[in-house]
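Can anyone check this?
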Amino acid sequence: MLINMNNKSQAWGMDLTVASVLFIFGIVVFYFYALNNPNEAQETIDALFYDGNIIADSILSEGHPSNWNSGNVVTIGILSQGKINETKLKGFYDLASSDYQKTKHLFNTKYEYYFNLSEVMIIDSTDVEGIGLKPSNPENIIKITRFSIYKNKPISAYLYMWN
């Protein structure tokens, strides 16, 4: 009988060992997941800022070619001689209104964007609030601010990026 009791205690000890290993493995997996999840959010924000800064710099440039239109545009830019060119602004607005996906492709981004100025933009005698897709309950959103000249007045240009 003594031999049977030892066998039972050995089996119980093995069960306890397997259960402990599984429990510890579960805790380790949980902590790796919990610790890496905030890093993914930070990486998304960093990617948004990276793309946003490049796009804002592109928009507030002369573009390529310097007298671009929707048919030959390589890089969208709305400035001429350091000031916002109303013809290029209208071209950007028209292109984004008719083919938003093309503008995202030209900006080389997978994120959504919305561009506006601190002054109301007037395009074809119409007040325009902004260019691009207006944000609606975005998960992560960033705002890039730049300064320029519009209608001989200093203004702020805002670019919103989100996923």
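Reply from J.R.: I decoded it. The longest helix spans residues 2-59.
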